[in-house]
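FORM 12-B: Structure-to-Sequence Request
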């Protein structure tokens, strides 16, 4: 059996919830998991996006609306999935947002928006999945999408960085709490990934730094030893690995998937 076959064999028949699954990194993770035989519930604040993405993956996958900032919305959505499938095995807490601003100009609204989705969203989804795994004695796996900005403070993204550093602290603490029950909790830390979020950031950054969007993108590439912009699929491969039994002795980690932008 090759390594690839082994990972597919581990994951075949598992059931996953992916938040923020309508596009970008979440959709690539959902697609990669589905190619490894995983049944995926794609959730997103956009019902239309989630439903279309699930239909695109094919039969057996579900698209549903979950706003990760809202406890009732998360609880209702997760219950719906439990009712449909009798439970689930994997949670990928991927939904996230960003805004860009100089710290001196940062507003309360920007701070709260970033923390509500990026940090509170991880808290609520991880807590409900943990309860489910414990109640069903399921040695489940949680993977949170943190960021390069969870390892190094990113200028113009201080609030976003703070919200993602918090995700790593949470991931480590939860991993220690759940390890005795065989539940693993890890995070991935992507770098400069080509998604809708990146397009918005390039536009904001070019305005804030007085550069053209092309210059901003060149700057990202020049910071990346592997010499190109990251793709959502670059992240998805590592998430699939973390979900599989090949990563059975890894917990509490924040894995850098940045093309070498950050090494540590
Ligand atoms: N793109 C990058 O360069 C990059 C780098 C590091 C980390 N990340 C992280 O990766 C994750 C995915 O980002 P992306 O680049 O794919 O962004 P994206 O904007 O392309 O996708 C994010 C998805 O999350 C959904 N979403 C937003 N708010 C939500 C909410 N309250 N509840 C549920 N869903 C919600 C959006 O509708 C969207 O479908 C985020 O956590 C982001 O912080 C992205």
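FORM 12-B RESPONSE
SEQUENCE OUT:
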């Amino acid at each position: 059996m090759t390594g690839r076959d082994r990972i597919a064999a581990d994951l075949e028949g598992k059931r996953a919830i992916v938040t923020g699954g309508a596009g970008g990194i979440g959709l690539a993770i959902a697609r990669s998991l589905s190619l490894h035989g995983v049944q995926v519930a794609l959730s997103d604040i956009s019902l239309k996006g989630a439903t279309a993405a699930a239909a695109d993956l094919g039969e057996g996958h579900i698209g549903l609306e979950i706003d990760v900032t809202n406890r009732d919305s998360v609880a209702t959505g997760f219950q719906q999935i439990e009712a449909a499938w009798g439970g689930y095995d994997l949670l990928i807490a991927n939904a996230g947002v960003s805004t860009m601003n100089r710290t001196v100009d940062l507003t309360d609204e920007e701070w709260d928006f970033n923390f509500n989705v990026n940090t509170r969203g991880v808290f609520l989804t991880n807590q409900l999945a943990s309860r489910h795994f414990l109640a069903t004695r399921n040695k489940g796996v949680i993977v949170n999408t943190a960021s390069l900005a969870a390892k190094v403070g990113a200028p113009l993204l201080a609030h976003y960085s703070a919200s993602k550093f918090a995700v790593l602290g949470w991931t480590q603490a939860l991993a220690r709490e759940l390890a005795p029950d065989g539940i693993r909790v890890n995070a991935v830390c992507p770098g400069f990934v080509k998604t809708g979020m990146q397009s918005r950031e390039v536009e904001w950054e070019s305005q804030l730094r007085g550069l053209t969007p092309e210059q901003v993108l060149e700057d990202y590439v020049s910071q990346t030893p592997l010499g190109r912009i990251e793709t959502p699929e670059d992240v998805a491969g590592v998430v699939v690995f973390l979900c599989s039994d090949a990563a059975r002795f890894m917990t509490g980690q924040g894995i850098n998937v940045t093309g070498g932008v950050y090494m540590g």
